[in-house]
Design brief:
Radius of gyration of chain B: 28 Å
Chains: A mainly alpha (167), B mainly alpha (710), C mainly alpha (445)
Shape of chain B: globular
CATH architecture of the largest domain in chain A: Up-down Bundle
Distance between the termini of chain B: 61 Å
Number of helices of chain B: 29
Number of helices of chain A: 6
Helix content of chain B: 55-70%
Distance between the termini of chain A: 66 Å
Strand order of the largest sheet of chain B: 1-2
Shape of chain A: globular
Largest interface: B-C, 71 and 69 residues
Structural class of chain A: mainly alpha
Strand content of chain A: under 5%
Number of domains of chain A: 2
Largest sheet of chain A: none
Oligomer: heterotrimer
Number of strands of chain B: 4
Number of strands of chain A: 0
CATH superfamily of the largest domain in chain A: NADH-ubiquinone/plastoquinone oxidoreductase chain 6, subunit NuoJ
Strand content of chain B: under 5%
CATH class of the largest domain in chain A: Mainly Alpha
Chain lengths: 167, 710, 445
C-alpha cells in the first residue's frame, strides 16, 4: 500500500467520523445557530470526500453553494426570525420515537443495499481535472436538461420576487 | 317502430328547453312538458297497437365505447311486448300526473310570501294557529271531556274562530318551472330504461331515474326533512345499484355480452353455467331490491313521501319503483336458469309484501300508508316473478300502476283540499306526527264535500283490495295462483309459506286501505280547517282522477283467464301456458278482502278505536309497527359506527395530527395583520415522517419481503 | 424550415411556451393594467404550443393537449383570479406558462434528468401560484406544499443518482437492462423516482401538501395546479411502471387501494365543496395508481381516466372561480354568488366525478374497473367499486341546493373557462371512444 493510500485512508476515516459527530450534534443541538454551524461542518466534510474522490469541480461547487450560499441564507433566516433561536424542547415523545424508528429503517435499508452490492473498483484512481469533461457533457449530452434547468431558475426567481414584493 | 327513440327523446328535449330557457316562464314550461309527454304517449300507444297486431320485436343498437378491437360497450333499444306494455303505462300515467300537477302546485298566498314553497313543504306552517297555541291546547282538554263518548276528537282550530273569512287565494309555487324540468328528465330516463336492450344502457337510465327521483323528492329542498329524504332515497337505492353495477360487470366479464337477448340465449342454451347465472342474477336483484324498495332496502320509500304528492304518484307508485320488477322481468331468463336465485326473489317479495303491509296498518300519514302499500304490492310482483310467472308479476305491475297512481292522486287531492281550507298545524305539534292536512286522524266527513275524490279513491281501494271484477283482483289472483302452482309443483315448503304470507297480506291490505278510506271520508271532519271551505279540487286535478279510474276498473279484464289471458299471451307469446282460474283460491282471497273491509268498517266507522291510535303509551306490538321495526335506527347505528366514525377519524387525523391543531389561531392572526402575512407551517415533520416512513416500509417490502416469496 | 421540422414535437411546444413567457415578462408593466390582453397572449401561446404536438406520437399528443387544456382554463381565469396583489397578474400568467412547460417536459422527456427538472419547474410554479391567492391561508398552504415537494424532489434526485449508478445513464428504466448485481440499487432508485412522481399525483402518504394547496389557492389557479400535475404525473408514472413493472406495479396497486379508502372516508367527513373535492382527488388518484399497476390495459385506462378527470376537475374549479378563496359549504352553495351557468357547470362536474352515466366519469371508472378486474380479480376491484360508488355519498350533497335555479343569483362575468371545460366534458361523455383509442395508442398498446 502506497503512502498516499494510507494518507487518504486516514483522512477519510477522520473526516467521516467528524461528519457523523457533526450530524448528530446538529440534530441534538437546542440552539438553532449552533445547529446550523454543525451543518456547515457536515457539508464541508462532504466537500472533503469529493476531493478524496478526485471530483475537484464538485468539491468547489459544494463549498460555494452549500457552505457558502445556502448556509448564509439559513443563518440570515434564523437571525431574522426573532424568538425562534432557541428550540423550546424537542418534538413530542411520540414523534421523536417514530422519527428515530424511521431513520433507523432508512439507515438499515441503505446499509443492506450497500453491503449486498458487489462494488466495482477502478484499477487506476481517477486523477484528472473533471471540470472540463463536465462542461463538455453539459453542453452536449445534457444540453436539454441544462436548458430546462434555466426554466426552473426562472420560475424560482419569479416566485421569489412576487412573494417578497410588497404592494 | 323506428319512431321508438322519439319516446324518451321528446321529454328529454322538454327538459333541456325548460332547463335552459324557460325556468321563469312557468306557464309555458308546464305546457311544453305536458305536450312532450302527450306526444310520447301517442307514439307509445301506436307502438303498442302495432305489437298487439303481431309486429315482430324491433331492436337497434350501436357501439358506444370500444374497449378493444372486438370489445365494445353498446347503446341500444328494443321494443317488444314487455317494453310496449311498460311504455304505455309510463307515458299514460306520466301524462295524467303532469296535467294533475299543473293544478296541484299552487299554494295559499301567505306561504308563498314566506318563501317556503308549497304548504305541504312547509314544516312550520300554521302561523295563524301559533298565536293561539295555548288556547288550542286548553280547548283540547275540554273537547276530550265533552266528546268522550265518541272517542278522542282532536280540536278543530276552526271551532275557535281563527279562520273566519275565506282562506288565502292560491298562487303558483315558485319552483313551478323547475318542477316540470325535473319531471321531464325523470320521465325521459324512465322511458329510456324501459327501451334499453342491454345492461349498460339500462344502467345508464337507471341512474338517470335515480337522479330524477333525488331531485324531485328534494324539490322543496329548503325543508330539512325533504333534503334528508332525498338523500336517504338516493343513498339507499345506491346501495342496491352498487350490486347492480357489479352484477353488470360480472356478467360482462364472464360472458362477454351485455344484450338481454344474447344473455337470454346463453342462459337458455346452458352456455352460461348455473353458478354464473346465480351470482349474476342475485347481483342484478340487489339493484332491483333497492329501486323497488324491497326488504331490507325498503326504508327510503316512506320517507320519500316528503316530495310533492304527484311525484309520489309518478315515481313511487307507477314507474320508478316498478323499474326493479321490470329489470327482473327483462333479465328473467338468467333468473330462471337458477332456482336458488328464483327462491331468493320469491322470498324477498313474499316477505316484503306482508312486512310492509303490517307497517301500513298503523301509519297515520295518508301518503305513508300509500307508500307502505306500494312496497307491499311490489313484493307481490316480485313474488309472482320468483314463482316463475313473469306474466303474473308484470300483470300486477300493469294494473297496480293505474290504481296506485289513482290512490296517490286522490290522497294528493285530499291534502290539497285541506290545505286550501286552511288545515294548519298547531305550534306544539309532535314532530313525529305528520302535518295535520296529511294525518288521517284529523280528517273525516269529506265524502259529501269532495265526491269525485271520494268515489275515485274508493274505486282504487277496492281494486287494490282485490274485489272482483276490478283490476287488482285479476292480477293479484294471478300472483297467488302462480305461487300455489309453484308450491304444488316442486317448489317445496318455502312456497307454501310464501302463499300463506300472500294470503294474509290480502286481509291486511283490505284492512289498512279501508282504514284510510273510512277515516278520510266517513263520519265528520275532525281536523283544524273550517269545514265550510272544504270543497272539491279543480278540474285539472279531478279529470286525471276520473280518467285513471277507468283502467283501475277494467285493466284487469285483459288478463282475465275467462277472457282468454290476453295479457299473458301478448307478453310471453308462445311460451305462455296460463292455467285456469283456481276458483277456491280466488273465492277465499275475495272473502278475506271483504272481511278486511268489514273489519275496517267496524273499527273505524265512527272513530271508536281511534283512541288507540292516539294512546301516548301504545302496546309493544303497536309501537314496533309504528317505529317500522326500528330498522331505520339499526341502519343509522350501523352507518354511524362503520362509516361516519371512520370518516371523522381520518378527518381528525389529518387536521390534528398532520396539520396541527394550532392552525385556527394562526389563521385568525393572519387575517388580522394582512400586511405581515404570517405563515403557519403545520407539522412538516409529521408530513415528512409519513413520507419517509411509507418509503421505508415500501423499500423493506421491495427488497426484503418480496424476494423471499418469489 | 428544415430546422423547424427537425425539432421534436414536445420541444417545439416548450419553445413556444417559453416564448410566450418571455413576452409576458418583458411587458409586465403594461400588461398588469390590461388583463384581457394578458390572457389573450397566454391563450395564444398555449394554443400555439398545442400545434407542434399534433405532429408527435400519441403520448405527446395526450400529454401536451391535456396540459394545454389545464393551462387554457387557468389562463382564462387569470383576469378574475383572486390575488393577494392584483398587479401581479402578468407574473401569474407567466407562471402558468412555465408550469405548463414543466408538466409537458415531465410527461414527454426523453430521459429522467429532464423529467426531474420539468417536475421541479412545475412544483415551483404551482407553489407560487397557490401562494399568490388572496388571504393568509393560501400562503400557508403553498409553503407546506413547497416544502413537501422539496422533500419528495430530494428523494427523486437521490433515486436518479442510484439509477445512474446502476445503469450508467439517465434513460427511462427498461426491463432486462439491469446488471443483476445492481438490482437492489436499481430497485431503490426506481422507488425513489416513483415517490417523486407520485407526489404530483397526491396518493397516500403524499397527500397532505397537495390537499391544502387544492383547498386554499384561488380556485382557477388551484384547478390548473391540480390538473397539470395529475396529467403529467400519470403519464410519467405510466412510463416508469412500463419499464420497471417489477417493483412498481404491486406498490402502485397497494398505494392505490389505501388511497381509495383514505380519500373516500376523508371526503365523507367534509362539509364544504372545495375540501371535499381535494379529498376526493386522493380517492381518484388511488384509482389511477391502481390502474397503473395493472399492465398495459391498466395504463391505458389510467391515461383515459386522467384526461377525463382533469377536464372534469377543471370544470369544477372554473365554476367556483371568481368568488374568493374561502370554503364553499354544501348547504350554502346557492348563496355564494354562483351564477346559473356556473351552478350548472359545477353540477355537471360533480355528476361526472360521481360516475353517473352518461357523463365521462362513468366511462373512465368503467375502464379502470375493467382493467383491474382482468389484472387483479375480485377483491381489489371490489374496493375500487366501493370507492367509486361511495363517491355519490359526498359528490351529490350540494346538488339540490345548486340546482334550485329559481333563486336570484349574484350575477358574475361571462365564464368562457366554464363553457370550454363544460363542452369538453359533454363531448367526452357522449363520444368517449376517441379518447380511449388515443390512450391505448399512448401506452403503445
Amino acid at each position: 500500500m502506497a503512502a498516499t493510500d494510507v494518507f487518504v485512508a486516514i483522512v477519510f476515516y477522520l473526516v467521516a467520523a467528524t461528519m457523523i459527530l457533526a450530524g448528530a450534534s446538529m440534530v441534538l443541538a437546542r440552539n438553532m445557530v449552533r445547529s446550523a454551524l454543525w451543518l456547515v461542518l457536515t457539508l464541508a466534510g462532504v466537500a472533503v470526500m469529493y476531493v478524496l474522490l478526485s471530483a475537484d469541480f464538485l468539491a468547489v461547487a459544494q463549498i460555494l453553494v452549500y457552505v457558502g450560499a445556502i448556509m448564509i441564507l439559513m443563518l440570515f433566516a434564523i437571525m431574522l426570525t426573532p424568538n425562534q433561536v432557541d428550540l423550546p424542547s424537542a418534538a413530542p415523545q411520540a414523534q421523536r420515537i417514530s422519527a428515530a424508528l424511521t431513520a433507523l429503517a432508512v439507515f438499515g435499508i441503505s446499509v443492506f443495499v450497500m453491503l449486498s452490492h458487489r462494488w466495482n473498483v477502478r484499477a487506476v484512481p481517477l486523477d484528472a481535472p473533471s471540470s472540463e469533461r463536465l462542461g463538455v457533457l453539459l453542453m452536449s449530452t445534457y444540453v436539454l436538461p441544462f436548458e430546462i434547468a434555466s426554466l426552473l431558475l426562472t420560475a424560482g426567481m419569479i416566485g421569489a420576487i412576487v412573494i417578497a414584493r410588497e404592494e | 317502430m323506428e319512431l321508438a327513440w322519439l319516446i324518451p327523446v321528446l321529454p328529454f328535449a322538454a327538459f333541456a328547453v325548460i332547463g335552459l330557457f324557460l325556468r321563469r316562464q312557468a306557464e309555458l314550461a308546464g305546457w311544453l312538458s305536458v305536450l312532450a309527454i302527450a306526444a310520447s304517449c301517442a307514439i307509445a300507444w301506436l307502438l303498442f297497437f302495432r305489437m298487439l297486431g303481431g309486429a315482430p320485436p324491433y331492436e337497434a343498437q350501436f357501439p358506444w365505447l370500444a374497449l378493444g378491437p372486438d370489445v365494445a360497450l353498446p347503446f341500444g333499444i328494443r321494443v317488444d311486448p314487455l317494453a310496449a306494455v311498460m311504455l304505455v303505462v309510463v307515458t299514460t300515467v306520466s301524462l295524467l300526473i303532469q296535467i294533475y300537477s299543473r293544478g296541484y302546485l299552487y299554494e295559499p298566498e301567505e306561504a308563498a310570501e314566506a318563501g317556503t314553497g308549497h304548504p305541504e313543504a312547509d314544516a312550520a306552517h300554521g302561523e295563524a294557529a301559533q298565536a293561539h297555541g295555548e288556547a288550542v291546547a286548553a280547548q283540547a282538554d275540554a273537547n276530550e271531556r265533552t266528546r268522550g263518548a265518541h272517542g278522542v276528537r282532536p280540536p278543530s282550530a276552526a271551532e275557535h274562530g281563527e279562520h273566519h273569512g275565506p282562506p288565502a287565494p292560491l298562487v303558483r309555487d315558485p319552483g313551478f318551472g323547475r318542477y316540470f324540468a325535473y319531471i321531464s328528465l325523470f320521465t325521459a330516463s324512465m322511458l329510456g330504461l324501459v327501451l334499453a336492450n342491454n345492461l349498460l344502457t339500462i344502467y345508464l337510465f337507471w341512474e338517470g331515474v335515480g337522479l330524477g327521483s333525488y331531485l324531485l323528492i328534494g324539490f322543496w329542498y329548503t325543508k330539512p326533512e325533504a333534503a334528508m329524504a332525498a338523500k336517504k332515497a338516493f343513498v339507499t337505492t345506491r346501495f342496491g345499484d352498487f350490486g347492480f353495477l357489479i352484477g353488470i360487470l360480472y356478467l360482462w366479464w364472464q360472458t362477454g355480452v351485455l344484450e338481454f337477448g344474447r344473455l337470454a340465449e346463453l342462459a337458455e342454451t346452458g352456455a352460461m353455467s348455473e353458478t354464473v347465472a346465480t351470482i349474476g342474477a342475485l347481483l342484478l336483484f340487489m339493484g332491483a331490491v333497492g329501486k323497488s324498495a324491497q326488504f331490507p332496502l325498503h326504508v327510503w320509500l316512506p320517507d320519500a313521501m316528503e316530495g310533492p304528492t304527484p311525484v309520489s304518484a309518478l315515481i313511487h307508485a307507477a314507474t320508478m319503483v316498478a323499474a326493479g320488477v321490470y329489470l327482473v322481468a327483462r333479465a328473467f331468463p338468467i333468473f330462471e336458469h337458477s332456482p336458488s336465485a328464483m327462491l331468493v326473489v320469491a322470498f324477498i317479495g313474499g316477505f316484503t309484501a306482508i312486512f310492509a303491509a303490517s307497517m301500513g296498518l298503523v301509519a297515520t300519514d295518508i301518503k305513508r300508508v300509500m307508500a307502505f302499500s306500494t312496497v307491499s304490492q311490489l313484493g307481490y310482483m316480485m313474488l309472482g316473478l320468483g314463482a316463475g310467472a313473469i306474466g303474473a308479476g308484470m300483470f300486477h305491475l300493469f294494473t297496480h300502476a293505474f290504481f296506485k297512481a289513482l290512490l296517490f292522486l286522490t290522497a294528493g287531492s285530499v291534502i290539497f283540499i285541506l290545505h286550501r281550507a286552511g288545515a294548519h298545524d298547531p305550534e306544539d305539534i309532535d314532530p313525529r306526527d305528520p302535518p295535520r292536512a296529511q294525518d288521517i286522524r284529523y280528517m273525516g266527513g269529506m265524502w259529501k264535500r269532495a265526491p269525485i275524490t271520494g268515489i275515485t279513491m274508493t274505486i282504487a281501494a277496492l281494486s287494490l283490495a282485490g274485489i272482483p271484477p276490478l283490476a287488482g283482483f285479476w292480477s293479484k289472483d294471478e300472483v297467488l295462483l302462480a305461487t300455489y302452482e309453484r308450491a304444488t309443483h316442486g317448489g317445496g315448503a318455502a312456497y307454501w309459506l310464501l302463499l300463506l304470507f300472500a294470503i294474509i297480506t290480502v286481509l291486511l291490505t283490505a284492512f289498512y286501505m279501508f282504514r284510510v278510506v273510512f277515516l278520510t271520508f266517513a263520519g265528520s271532519y275532525r281536523g283544524p280547517a273550517d269545514p265550510q271551505y272544504i270543497k272539491e279540487s279543480p278540474a285539472s286535478m279531478t279529470l286525471p282522477l276520473l280518467v285513471l279510474a277507468v283502467p283501475s276498473v277494467v285493466a284487469g279484464l285483459w288478463g282475465a283467464p275467462q277472457l282468454g289471458h290476453g295479457f299473458g299471451h301478448f307478453l310471453e307469446g308462445a311460451d305462455f301456458h296460463g292455467g285456469e282460474m283456481n276458483l277456491p283460491l280466488a273465492l277465499f282471497s275475495t272473502l278475506l278482502a271483504v272481511g278486511g273491509i268489514a273489519l275496517a268498517w267496524l273499527t273505524y266507522k265512527n272513530g271508536s278505536l281511534l283512541a288507540m291510535a292516539m294512546n301516548p303509551r301504545p302496546s309493544a306490538v303497536y309501537a314496533t309497527l309504528l317505529n317500522r321495526y326500528w330498522i331505520d335506527e339499526l341502519y343509522m347505528w350501523l352507518i354511524d359506527t362503520f362509516i361516519i366514525n371512520w370518516a371523522f377519524a381520518i378527518d381528525w387525523f389529518d387536521t390534528h395530527v398532520i396539520d396541527g391543531a394550532v392552525n385556527g389561531a394562526a389563521r385568525l392572526t393572519g387575517s388580522i395583520g394582512n400586511s405581515v402575512r404570517q405563515v403557519q407551517t403545520g407539522r412538516i415533520p409529521a408530513y415528512a415522517l409519513a413520507v419517509f416512513g411509507g418509503l421505508a416500509l415500501i423499500s423493506i417490502w421491495a427488497i426484503v419481503i418480496r424476494p423471499l416469496f418469489s | 424550415m428544415n430546422v423547424l421540422a427537425s425539432i421534436p414535437p414536445p420541444l417545439g411546444s416548450v419553445l413556444i411556451l417559453v416564448l410566450g413567457t418571455l413576452v409576458i415578462l418583458l411587458l409586465t408593466g403594461r400588461l398588469s393594467n390590461s388583463p384581457t390582453i394578458l390572457a389573450t397572449i397566454g391563450v395564444l401561446s398555449l394554443l400555439g404550443a398545442a400545434l407542434p404536438a399534433m405532429g408527435g406520437d400519441a403520448l405527446t399528443r395526450v400529454s401536451v393537449l391535456g396540459v394545454v387544456a389545464a393551462g387554457l382554463v387557468g389562463m382564462l381565469l387569470v383576469p378574475s383570479a383572486e390575488l393577494h396583489n392584483s398587479t401581479q397578474r402578468p407574473e401569474v400568467a407567466a407562471l402558468i406558462l412555465l408550469g405548463s412547460t414543466g408538466a409537458i417536459v415531465l410527461a414527454t422527456a426523453g430521459e429522467l434528468l429532464s423529467a426531474a427538472l420539468g417536475l421541479e419547474t412545475l412544483s415551483l410554479s404551482a407553489a407560487v401560484l397557490v401562494a399568490l391567492g388572496r388571504g393568509a391561508r393560501p400562503l400557508e398552504a403553498a409553503f407546506r406544499y413547497f416544502v413537501l415537494a422539496a422533500i419528495s424532489f430530494a428523494a427523486l434526485v437521490y433515486g436518479l443518482g442510484l439509477l445512474l449508478l446502476a445503469t450508467g445513464s439517465f434513460a427511462w428504466p427498461r426491463p432486462g437492462v439491469v446488471d443483476p448485481t445492481y438490482s437492489y440499487i436499481w430497485t431503490i432508485g426506481v422507488l425513489l423516482i416513483g415517490l417523486g412522481f407520485a407526489y404530483k399525483l397526491a396518493v397516500f402518504p403524499l397527500l397532505w401538501g397537495p390537499l391544502d394547496a387544492y383547498t386554499a389557492g384561488a380556485p382557477g389557479l388551484a384547478g390548473f395546479v391540480m390538473a397539470a400535475s395529475k396529467i403529467a404525473a400519470v403519464v410519467a408514472l405510466a412510463r416508469l411502471a412500463a419499464g420497471a413493472a417489477v417493483p412498481m406495479a404491486p406498490i402502485l396497486i397497494g398505494i392505490g387501494l389505501v388511497s381509495i379508502i383514505w380519500g373516500t372516508f376523508g371526503a365523507l367527513a367534509q362539509r364544504e365543496v372545495r375540501r371535499m373535492l381535494a379529498y376526493s382527488t386522493v380517492a381518484n388518484a388511488g384509482l389511477m395508481a391502481l390502474a397503473l399497476g395493472c399492465g398495459p390495459e391498466g395504463r391505458a385506462a389510467a391515461i383515459f381516466f386522467v384526461v377525463i378527470y382533469v377536464l372534469t376537475i377543471l370544470l369544477a374549479f372554473a365554476a367556483m372561480a371568481g368568488r374568493g378563496t374561502g370554503p364553499l359549504p354544501f348547504g350554502e352553495v346557492r348563496g355564494e354568488g354562483l351564477s346559473a351557468t356556473r351552478a350548472l357547470g359545477l353540477t355537471l362536474a360533480l355528476l361526472s366525478l360521481a360516475g353517473i352515466p352518461p357523463t365521462p366519469g362513468f366511462w373512465a371508472k368503467l375502464a379502470i374497473l375493467d382493467a383491474s378486474w382482468s389484472a387483479l380479480g375480485f377483491w381489489p376491484t371490489l374496493v375500487a367499486v366501493i370507492g367509486g360508488v361511495a363517491g355519490v355519498l359526498y359528490y351529490l350533497r350540494p346538488l339540490p341546493d345548486l340546482l334550485a335555479l329559481t333563486r336570484a343569483h349574484v350575477s358574475s362575468a361571462p365564464a368562457p373557462a366554464v363553457w370550454f371545460a363544460g363542452a369538453a366534458v359533454v363531448v367526452l361523455g357522449l363520444a368517449p371512444g376517441f379518447a380511449y383509442a388515443v390512450a391505448r395508442l399512448a401506452i403503445g398498446g
